[in-house]
């Protein structure tokens, strides 16, 4: 048996580095990661530690016993007759009229004027239909008219097949 130049604990530590080899262990064997091998079933010392056995991955689930009851609760307060002024929509028509009377014609001045005055729609006028949306005639169309179909467009849209199928269905 060859003489051992290292202590027994050094040899046991080096078993993970060079298993089955006895002899001289250099200091670089413990510092260079390329020379180190993990022992079977053990994590390397430079990697993340193992999680404890009772560790649970993910977020904790906070269950509430009365969650459904909270969802099915309706507000019990009755709304008062007066509404909050900030809840009402801005009255841009009045802002435009008043800014013209004040001699304001440029946009930055108009923005400052609208912020300073803060005209809101009167709730009674709102109820009387001042915010009534205009209705458009049925024959009125918006946007550009559709382009007429081309032979290539019909080919890409399988229009010829659809037309032939309809003709074949009608002739049967």
TrEMBL record:
The UniProt entry, under InterPro entries, shows: CFAP77
Name the domain of life this protein comes from. Eukaryota
What is the name listed in the Swiss-Prot or TrEMBL entry for this protein? Uncharacterized protein
* Organism of origin: Protopolystoma xenopodis
């Amino acid at each position: 048996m060859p003489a051992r130049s290292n202590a027994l604990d050094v040899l046991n530590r080096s078993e993970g580095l060079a298993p089955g080899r006895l002899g001289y262990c250099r200091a670089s064997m413990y510092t260079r990661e390329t020379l180190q091998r993990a022992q079977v079933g053990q994590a390397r010392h430079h990697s993340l530690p193992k999680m404890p056995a009772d560790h649970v991955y993910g977020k904790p689930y906070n269950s509430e016993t009365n969650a459904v009851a909270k969802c099915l609760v309706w507000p019990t307060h009755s709304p008062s007759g007066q509404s909050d002024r900030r809840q009402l929509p801005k009255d841009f028509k009045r802002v435009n009229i008043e800014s013209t009377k004040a001699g304001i014609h440029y946009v930055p001045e108009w923005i400052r004027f609208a912020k300073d005055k803060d005209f809101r729609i009167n709730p009674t006028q709102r109820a009387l239909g001042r915010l009534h949306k205009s209705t458009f005639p049925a024959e009125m169309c918006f946007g550009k008219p559709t382009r007429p179909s081309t032979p290539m467009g019909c080919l890409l849209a399988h229009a010829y097949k659809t037309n032939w199928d309809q003709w074949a269905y009608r002739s049967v």
